[in-house]
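Notes continue from the previous slide.

Worked example: a multi-chain complex. Inputs as given:
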Amino acid sequence: MRITLVGSGNVATHLGAALVNAGHRIAQVWSRDLQNAALLAYHLKAEPVDDLSEIRPETDLIVISVKDDAVETVASFIPIKNVLVVHTCGSVGLQTLKKYFDTCGVFYPLQTFSKTRELDFRSVPLCIESTDKNSTARLLDLGRSISNNVTYIDSAQRKTLHLAAVFACNFPNYLYAVAAELLSKQQMDFGLIKPLILETASKVQSFLPQEVQTGPAKRRDGQTMAAHLELLQQYPEWQQLYTLLSQGIIKMDEPPSA
Amino acid sequence: MRITLVGSGNVATHLGAALVNAGHRIAQVWSRDLQNAALLAYHLKAEPVDDLSEIRPETDLIVISVKDDAVETVASFIPIKNVLVVHTCGSVGLQTLKKYFDTCGVFYPLQTFSKTRELDFRSVPLCIESTDKNSTARLLDLGRSISNNVTYIDSAQRKTLHLAAVFACNFPNYLYAVAAELLSKQQMDFGLIKPLILETASKVQSFLPQEVQTGPAKRRDGQTMAAHLELLQQYPEWQQLYTLLSQGIIKMDEPPSA
């Protein structure tokens, strides 16, 4: 497929590389910043542009891969009408693109991307949605050319999926940061808890998280929880977080009320 | 070494196996429940007992591996005085054992254990502490016979380390459970976000969590955060959690106030 990439961020960078590796051709790369466009376009052997009016209609697919809250603005400036257009965002409905394009869809890679980190795209779940059967078939084909895990997910489901991803990725990462900060205040190395972090995530690859919950709240160890809250005295927000998360763990074991 | 194992839970099970694999001999296994003692003792070729008064002095080390809040009670019933005694708990100070034994220490494996899941003990960080240089040397030697990652950590540091472990393991696991619940309510499979969970934990093996934070709060995407809170309408506790965690992520980027 000939593909036009609108955006040059983390997702665009990883997705572009995966598409080129699978034998697709990237026609143009757009970024607000011409240098960013040029950098990614160089790697993908594409033409860089920094003006959405320069996007050419000689392409099979336009992929808008910008921040969730910029999708609509960017879409409104793309002058092409007869090409399939998708975005790659978890939280943006198909409706947003429908205002501007007849045939459009979503091509949402459910993964956390950093430019500096290599990643095997074949293991990234791809969530597909579109306005019509023909586009769906094309997007499923394209998805399968770069990933082993392609699913049709509608906009309502994707909203929840994106929310679940925030709970499963963004929030745990923040808690890792809290742990790192606590250790560093006591001259301990973050490296000490890295195996624990990895094992916790590995466990839920084969068990449901509810089944493998451990820790003071799980065993109703009030003495330890009180000692932890005491240690957090200087961090009222983390105390509140500790309490709320521990209450959640305790509640998880209770039978649902009638 | 001849070792007596007091306890038959997750930690005792994994630790006992690692010790036997490294060529140590388990003399006795105690559990309140004789069946549990017998089961673990069978695997470790040891003698099972369910009465602490039956523990024999012909041993080099007594390992108390029971729940954090049971350590003191169990210690008070062990009739032996001239043997090195350690516990394996993150939140219990050395002080607690000192009340009952002259030479004592801590042998804390910093990992999350489930009986049903195999684990390579060599990658488990072991945190050692003791009352005297001789015991420290013996515990470091023992630790190195089963793990590549043995560190001396004093009781004050270990308290913080245990708290950090709750933030890095128990709380993220709870958030995985929340994600699983949200997905299941919308007929989606938890499997969809497993790669995301694993990649999030893998990332912080080579980067600091602060450096790889992503998501709506990180990019100050108020529209997406509002939509997520709306989706959580039926779950006031999770709304509160979402807000608190998002505020934490936003605050993490702010320069410390003067």
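Summary box: The beta strands of chain A are 2-6, 25-30, 47-49, 61-64, 84-87, 104-109, 126-130, 150-152. Residues 238 and 244 of chain A are 10 Å apart (CA to CA).
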